[in-house]
């Protein structure tokens, strides 16, 4: 036991004692394969291809395994890595990490010989516990969310599983924003945890055994709706090819956070009662969130999963964030690799649909295009000019369709906005890349030519001609005409949806037969002609319709169908 006034020896820890990996140097122009060989010969875990640059052996090995050994090793480097002397104090090292450094190089004289990795040093951040924020969110929904998180922690403790809130709920809590859903990771069997949690919170559960995940939607006994909670087992991921779906394996929280896309999503909050609210932030995500920076967790992040570029565009628009320098270099590396045959078209289309559902969708797409992300879809796609206006037009048209009892998926509307203005060959290849076939492909091809249909609609001389051009067209084709059309064309398309398509003759087929129209196709032709006359304002009552039919029957050889076909002896020619 320490006694007052007594002197005790102090242990001064310097940088050399904090080293977590040894390093070796290599030629700045060395290829990935050569740098990997040098790293393995020296027994080091990283190479230094130049001042302030570090390439980890694990990244070199992954790139070589993906047949990217010819890439310059420097392209895989962390840059701007701070350097300290071996005798620098532990406090100096911690300050560098708290300022955002992902790692610190240690030198002996002028030669770097060791590396201190951020995850290998325990850091005490300000406001390490967010318990107070969780408990005082100032709304009924916030109270329900806090109760749910507390309950998840208790259930996890009862099962002997460490439980954490992760991802968006942590990010939104730090931003002071309500999180619509709650993502929970458990170090153990996520499905067993979810079933036990269901016993406590009630509601309905959907289980995905193949992924080890489950979702619960429920309500408290007082009727308060609970946020949806998505549960997953902590896992690691390994990508066998760039763009392929990863192989997953059970793991701890540290590995689960290490597999994520950006530092702002690699944070967790402990939920166990003894540590409730403790922030786990191994990569400085909180600092990046405050600075509105999107920083990937490693240089190969966008190569192993190129859809992270599209995801980053969503976060950039939603948070008003920008790519950190590391993110720009990771993007340049991903574009350098260029082709991702293992990346499925369905995944690209899913990410486009998510972009389209963003509140600031136009900004999200603009960011994705500015970053060159659409090259993942098709390198010849050219859509940035006027895209914002086309996306806004798509949103307005979707509202118009809803008013008419129809529907346009936001993702499909975005696809049309992106495809319009491109050459037919490019459009066809882009749809091939997304693996879109059958009727959807046919309709999207037609919608990409929507400007031509819109021009015909604008030139139509009569309402019946507009109706003939638009009747029975799929919603996707109408969307293409609206998005690519002039004001006149849009006004006429709106008239067709709101009024024109609902116009019907007062007489029925039986009425026409009673008037002397022969059974068969002639009845349909007469009904169409009556409808056209109604649309053009030539007749307005059932009596006028009867008189019109009698004239047609009396002069069959001079009567024309609205499409220019003649009705002869009561039949279409």
Architecture overview:
- Helix content is 46%, strand content 13%.
- The protein is of the alpha+beta class and 573 residues long.
- It has 4 domains: 15-120, CBS-domain; 131-288, Beta Polymerase, domain 2 (2-Layer Sandwich), CATH 3.30.460; 378-502; 509-572, no CATH class.
- The strands form 5 sheets. Strands 9-10-11-8-7-14-15 form a 7-stranded mixed β-sheet. Strands 3-2-1-6-5-4 form a 6-stranded mixed β-sheet. It has a two-stranded antiparallel sheet with strand order 12-13.
- The longest helix has 20 residues, at 140-159.
- The protein is elongated, with a radius of gyration of 32 Å.
- The protein starts with 20 loop residues before the first strand and ends with a strand.
Write the layout of secondary structure elements.
Layout: E1 21-25, H1 32-42, E2 46-50, E3 53-56, H2 57-65, E4 83-85, H3 90-98, E5 103-108, E6 111-117, H4 131-135, H5 140-159, E7 163-166, H6 168-175, E8 181-186, H7 190-201, E9 204-208, E10 213-217, E11 228-233, E12 235-238, E13 247-250, H8 253-258, E14 268-270, E15 279-280, H9 285-291, E16 293-294, H10 301-304, H11 307-319, E17 322-323, H12 325-337, H13 345-356, H14 361-370, H15 387-403, H16 410-419, H17 424-433, H18 438-448, H19 450-459, H20 463-470, H21 475-484, H22 487-498, H23 509-515, H24 521-535, H25 542-554, E18 567-568, E19 571-572
Parallel strand pairs: 1-2, 4-5, 8-11, 16-17
Antiparallel strand pairs: 1-6, 2-3, 5-6, 7-8, 7-14, 9-10, 10-11, 12-13, 14-15, 18-19
